[in-house]
Amino acid sequence: MKLFNAQQIYAADKSTIASQQITSDELMERAAVQLFNWLHLRLQGASVKIHLFCGIGNNGGDGIALARHLQDHGYNIGVYVVNYSKTRSDDFLINLDRLKERKVWPIFLEEGSALPEVGRDDIIVDAIFGIGLNRPPAAWVVNLMRYLHKSEALVLSVDIPSGLYMDNVPKEEDAAVKANYVLSFQAPKLVFFLPETGIYMEHWEVLDIGLDQKFLSELETEYRLIGKNEVLSHYLPREKFAHKGTYGHSLIIGGSYGKIGAVVLSAKAALHSGSGLVTAYVPECGYTILQTALPEAMVVVDVDKKNISNIDFDISPKVIGLGVGLGKAASTVKALSDFLSENKIPLVIDADGLNILSENQALLKKMPAKTILTPHPKELERLIGKWENDFDKLKKAKDFSKKYDCIIVIKGAHTITLYGEKGYVNTTGNPGMATAGSGDVLTGIITGLVAQGYEPLEATIFGVYLHGKAADLTVENTGYQALTATGIIDGIGEAYLDLFKTPEEPQVQNEQSEQ
Ligand SMILES: NC(=O)C1=CN([C@@H]2O[C@H](COP(=O)(O)OP(=O)(O)OC[C@H]3O[C@@H](n4cnc5c(N)ncnc54)[C@H](OP(=O)(O)O)[C@@H]3O)[C@@H](O)[C@H]2O)[C@@H](O)CC1
Ligand SMILES: [K+]
């Protein structure tokens, strides 16, 4: 699913109005009817008080139009115009007149106005700002947002929580509305998925307002949301006459004394993701552990007992997963440097492999094209430097990706894969994945997918999806706390099977809250 920016949404509005020969006010009416239907379906005429806080632009216009439908159906409403500007949109004014025709007189809130009483069992409709926010809201508007938050009433935000920008983060933490539900038009927005802005909502849903599909389908977006439909189109089916050689040979290089388990997890995940053959390259102390824990894998040992000191093998893997449990011993750094100078095999680099790269930046230039890097936030910071906010992080990571021609996986609640200018936002996964070894499993899955013939970018997007889906399926039986990395591996098979279960409903709902 495409994640449009504000300019693209405004352009889609225009195109829809032209191609469907409707007025902009009719488009707003569609939005308002969808909002009303959503509420009415759930409230069924209940007498709960609904407070609608409406700005003076089109987001406010949506709120005012919704108020009219609620009034027509006998709901108990209070309507407030948050009068933060003299420049009102035409469609806001049209809808304000329609409301007044019904003898509903909104209360105009200005700086210093007394604020209406809102009970904790009431409902707030937040239609103050939409995607048009382009500067910090005035202090009195921020105060109003704080006041709404304190009321503890259920908050429904129209299109986007007011105070959130489409391409920035709020300057102060409470300068945006915290929504229980966001009812977003046509498509979710990128900010729903970033750690600093995703916290402003618990759930989001998409309301289809029938924007020009042809126009939308031709738009190129910087970001895409990755669900089942997106990864299915990349899935490589197994062939009847295949043999284990058909699905590639993965080599996992890593481990140090006390950290051999990381290699076991990666190698096992590579096998479960479908790699035909898997070999582990470990210090000598890892030999018995691997042969015992994972009989399916082959093992090549380093001359050193405790650390990787010289990467030397006479097999021809299709891809190498490098760095899990590696440590940063001086001999390991040298081994990695020598290895990168000679190596032409595609790489997936994780953990201490990444740390060694960030401490020896000259090595970055030695990575083969489209090397996949899977840093957690601290490792990412060591690679790309500190960032000011999530948008700055994305920009810096993209610059890094372009500079070194590498794919970067920014791990998080919604892991984002970046390559050049494009980003792919994952939708699977859960908080239980914040557990030891979870990253080693991801490295193994992606390595196993490259081995099978997936292009590096496809392997990364698909691997991140499968990793999260496997965890989502396993967590149904374990709960967040008891989910382990091994549990994630155990779910990979089911995650594959799930790809072919009933076709996915259009993505209309998402939960960001704890279970
Ligand atoms: N296709 C769709 O999805 C459809 C979308 N629709 C709806 O339209 C919404 C977008 O509406 P919108 O463009 O009128 O902007 P909105 O957010 O209401 O802001 C209003 C104005 O406030 C101003 N302003 C900005 N920051 C400010 C600040 N800090 N303090 C004071 N003023 C500030 C700024 O104007 P400026 O002052 O810069 O001229 C801005 O234009 C969208 O979210 C959705 O709800 C539907 O109706 C139909 C189809
Ligand atoms: K809003």
Automatic annotation (TrEMBL):
- Provide the binding site for (6S)-NADPHX: 58-62, 130-136, 159, 262, 325, 376, 440
Q: Per the database record, which ranges form the YjeF N-terminal domain?
A: 9-217
Write the Enzyme Commission number(s) for this entry.
4.2.1.136, 5.1.99.6
Q: Name one Pfam family in it.
A: YjeF_N
Q: Which reaction does it catalyse?
A: (6R)-NADPHX = (6S)-NADPHX; (6S)-NADHX + ADP = AMP + phosphate + NADH + H(+); (6S)-NADPHX + ADP = AMP + phosphate + NADPH + H(+); (6R)-NADHX = (6S)-NADHX
Q: GO annotations under biological process? A: metabolite repair; nicotinamide nucleotide metabolic process
Tell me which InterPro entries the record gives: Carbohydrate_kinase_pred_CS, CARKD, Nnr, Ribokinase-like, YjeF_N_dom, YjeF_N_dom_sf
Co-factor note (free text): Binds 1 potassium ion per subunit.
- The entry's K(+)-binding residues are N59, D126, S162
Q: Which molecular-function annotation in GO is an example for this chain?
A: ADP-dependent NAD(P)H-hydrate dehydratase activity
Keywords (alphabetical) are: ATP-binding, Isomerase, Kinase, Lyase, Metal-binding, Multifunctional enzyme, NAD, NADP, Nucleotide-binding, Potassium, Transferase
Positions with a binding annotation for AMP: K411, G412, A413, H414, T415, G439
Needed cofactors, names only, are: K(+); Mg(2+)
- Establish whether keyword Protein transport is in the entry: no
Q: Where is the YjeF C-terminal domain?
A: 227-499
- Protein family membership: In the C-terminal section; belongs to the NnrD/CARKD family. Belongs to the NnrE/AIBP family.
Query: What does the UniProt function comment say about this protein?
Result: Catalyzes the dehydration of the S-form of NAD(P)HX at the expense of ADP, which is converted to AMP. Together with NAD(P)HX epimerase, which catalyzes the epimerization of the S- and R-forms, the enzyme allows the repair of both epimers of NAD(P)HX, a damaged form of NAD(P)H that is a result of enzymatic or heat-dependent hydration. Bifunctional enzyme that catalyzes the epimerization of the S- and R-forms of NAD(P)HX and the dehydration of the S-form of NAD(P)HX at the expense of ADP, which is converted to AMP. This allows the repair of both epimers of NAD(P)HX, a damaged form of NAD(P)H that is a result of enzymatic or heat-dependent hydration.
Q: What is the annotated quaternary arrangement, including any partners?
A: Homotetramer.
What protein name applies here?
Bifunctional NAD(P)H-hydrate repair enzyme
**Native organism taxonomy:** Bacteria, Pseudomonadati, Bacteroidota, Flavobacteriia, Flavobacteriales
